[in-house]
């Protein structure tokens, strides 16, 4: 895996030497980069080789291997984004970066499972963010390596074609599993919920959370054919509860079991032998904050710390990774 | 490995959730989660037919991926 935090000068050299790059960094440093074959999103939080790190000066770079067959960088607006799966190469993968809290972020979150050819090709990526002290004051941005101003309401995607000898796999590491509490279902899809069906009985979700002293640092978890998929809490208002990703009707959720030591549980859940096969990974800002990952290592996995993760669709509080292997 | 025809009963059984085999590939899980959601929202024969076409297309397009083939075997043998 050729990916780590670099000084800006080194990134500039990589770009001018023609390398194809997926970048993450603060807006000010990304805007200084020369034009080239790169995409980027804003974020100043990273998991690097020596642990979690905050930096507004350094840039995290994932360098595409020289054996790639072809590539194509596309900037999608909300309407065009439904083609993201159709535009992917037959053998390869696509990396998407979405600006956090934008209309296209919310649209992708709700609608990506309805896009033509959903999940037929590997799609991985992340949601760009800002310094947490600047949320609401500065907008997250994405860049396509051409426009130095960046985009606040478009998604950038790098479609990558691989030789037939290579095979791609996307998977997740999620330390959360459903707790043994109530079964929760929601009447409608959405980023917020007024009502919840608790073990078959309709209740106000905000009141339910308060009455049961639920720790909203723990996500809602749905068992998806043995893979646990999280939906994280954003805030609880008087009568409504807001999430970082949508909840879906017809899905059964439970509040996650509490964890003791994120890093220890992460290591136990990480498959052996991924090592050099891992091309890209990213982890959630909520894991970074709640598990206090600054200065701590998550063995073998580095990358941007994100405001949302994409493994075919939007995920929360999850570490996502993509491996390239021999077929 | 031959891909079963759209009329093969296992396709519908896995979409409705009557069959719940174990899968290895994340995309198989995500796609089936979505297809089940779509079908349950409007459970008609036409909707099932659309879901089967999407599921079968996924396996057809990823026929050289060993994990996907393993998932296909899990459906057929379930």
What would you say this structure looks like, in words?
- The complex is a heterodimer of chains A (about 325) and B (about 80).
- With about 325 residues, chain A is mainly beta.
- Helix content of chain A is about 15%, strand content about 40%.
- Chain A has a 6-stranded mixed sheet with strand order 5-4-23-22-26-12.
- In chain A, a hairpin with a 2-residue loop joins strand 15 and strand 16.
- The longest helix of chain A has 9 residues, at about 10-15.
- The model of chain A has no long low-confidence stretch (mean pLDDT about 95).
- Chain B has about 80 residues and is mainly alpha-helical.
Protein traits:
heterodimer, A: 327 residues, mainly beta, 2 domains, 6-stranded mixed sheet, globular, B: 78 residues, mainly alpha, 4 helices
Please tell me the total number of domains of chain B: 1
Count of runs of 4 or more consecutive helical residues of chain A: 6
- What is the total tally of β strands of chain B? 0
- Summing up helix and strand content along with how strands pair, one would put the structural category of chain A as mainly beta
In a nutshell, what does this entry contain?
The complex is a heterodimer of chains A (327) and B (78). Chain A is mostly beta strands and 327 residues long.
SSE layout:
The complex is a heterodimer of chains A (327) and B (78).
Chain A: E1 3-6, H1 8-16, E2 21-25, H2 27-30, E3 38-42, E4 45-48, E5 51-54, E6 59-63, E7 70-76, E8 92-99, H3 103-111, E9 123-128, E10 142-143, E11 155-161, E12 166-173, E13 184-185, E14 190-193, E15 195-198, E16 201-204, H4 205-211, E17 220-224, E18 227-231, E19 233-236, E20 241-247, E21 254-255, H5 262-269, E22 278-284, H6 285-290, E23 303-306, E24 309-311, E25 313-315, E26 319-326
Parallel strand pairs in A: 2-3, 8-9, 22-23
Antiparallel strand pairs in A: 1-6, 2-6, 3-10, 4-5, 4-23, 7-11, 8-11, 9-24, 12-26, 13-15, 14-20, 15-16, 17-18, 17-21, 19-20, 22-26, 24-25
Chain B: H1 9-16, H2 26-41, H3 45-61, H4 66-77
């Amino acid at each position: 895996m050729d990916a780590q935090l670099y000084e800006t000068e080194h990134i500039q050299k990589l770009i001018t030497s023609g390398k194809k790059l997926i970048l993450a960094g603060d807006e000010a440093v990304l805007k200084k980069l020369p034009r080239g074959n790169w995409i980027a999103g804003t974020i100043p939080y990273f998991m690097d080789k020596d642990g979690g790190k905050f930096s507004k000066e350094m840039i995290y770079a994932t360098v595409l291997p020289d054996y790639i067959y072809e590539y194509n960088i596309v900037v999608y607006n909300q309407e065009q984004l439904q083609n993201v799966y159709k535009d992917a190469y037959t053998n390869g993968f696509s990396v998407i970066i979405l600006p956090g809290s934008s209309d296209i972020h919310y649209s992708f979150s709700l609608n990506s499972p309805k896009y033509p050819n959903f999940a037929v090709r590997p799609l991985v990526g992340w949601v760009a963010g800002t310094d947490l002290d600047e949320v609401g004051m500065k907008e997250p941005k994405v860049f396509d390596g051409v426009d130095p101003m960046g985009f606040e309401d478009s998604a950038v995607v790098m479609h990558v074609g691989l030789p037939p000898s290579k095979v791609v796999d996307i998977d997740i590491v999620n330390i959360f599993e459903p707790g043994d509490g109530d079964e929760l279902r929601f009447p409608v899809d959405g980023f917020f919920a007024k009502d919840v069906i608790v073990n078959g009985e309709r209740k106000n979700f905000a009141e339910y959370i308060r009455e049961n002293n639920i720790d909203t640092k723990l996500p809602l978890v749905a068992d998806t054919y043995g893979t646990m998929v999280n939906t994280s809490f954003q805030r609880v208002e008087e009568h409504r509860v807001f999430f970082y990703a949508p909840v879906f009707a017809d899905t059964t959720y439970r509040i996650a079991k509490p964890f003791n030591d994120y890093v220890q549980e992460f290591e136990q859940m990480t498959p052996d032998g991924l090592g050099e096969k891992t091309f890209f990974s990213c982890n959630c800002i909520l894991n970074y904050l709640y598990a206090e990952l600054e200065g701590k290592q998550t063995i073998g996995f580095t990358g941007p710390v994100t405001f949302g993760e994409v493994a075919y669709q939007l995920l929360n509080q999850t570490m996502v990774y993509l491996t390239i292997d021999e077929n | 490995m031959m891909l079963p025809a759209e009329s093969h009963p296992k396709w519908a059984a896995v979409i409705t959730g009557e069959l719940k085999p174990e899968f290895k590939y994340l995309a198989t899980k995500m796609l089936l989660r979505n297809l089940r959601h779509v079908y349950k929202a409007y459970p008609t024969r036409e909707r099932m037919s659309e879901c089967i076409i999407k599921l079968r297309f996924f396996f057809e397009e990823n026929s050289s991926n060993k994990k996907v083939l393993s998932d296909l075997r899990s459906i057929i043998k379930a």
